[in-house]
């Protein structure tokens, strides 16, 4: 990628280690990182959720660079597939793995001193009582 926003690759003995991002077009990189910050503030967007998750673990600047990398990747995918851009939504990362999300939230509540038991939600009843009675 010409922007130089791809993460660096440093592998040794089968382990991935942190490496600096590549050197690329400085002006393009500046514009993309500058666009990543407002994109991360857009209400209800996938990029906002991803930014704040990364920011908690890696810091604000690294999270901004990661979001700046996602912008041209999404643009490339929409152009090559010839489809309109569709944001995945704020809850996308939670929907990927329900059990992992539930276990993480349970663990956080237990750390706060709560006793938590998780059971699946029962299926919702039919919304149309007339159709249910006729059947």
Structure description:
The chain has helices at residues 26-39, 46-58, 60-81, 92-96, 98-111, 129-134, and strands at residues 10-12, 15-17. It has 2 domains: 10-89, no CATH class; 91-120, no CATH class. The longest helix is centred in the middle third of the chain and has 22 residues, at 60-81. Helix 1 (26-39) crosses helix 3 (60-81) and helix 2 packs antiparallel against helix 3 (60-81). The chain has 6 helices and 2 strands; from the N terminus they run E-E-H-H-H-H-H-H. The protein is mainly alpha-helical. Strands 1-2 form a two-stranded antiparallel sheet. The radius of gyration is 21 Å and the shape is extended.
Summary, kept brief:
With 135 residues, this protein is mainly alpha-helical.
| Beta strands, count | 2
Q: What is the overall silhouette?
A: extended
CA-to-CA gap between the ends? 59 Å
Separate helix tally: 6
The helix/strand class is: mainly alpha
Secondary-structure blueprint:
Elements: E1 10-12, E2 15-17, H1 26-39, H2 46-58, H3 60-81, H4 92-96, H5 98-111, H6 129-134
Antiparallel strand pairs: 1-2
Helix pairs in contact: 1-3, 2-3
List key phrases describing it.
135 residues, 2 domains, two-stranded antiparallel sheet, mainly alpha, extended
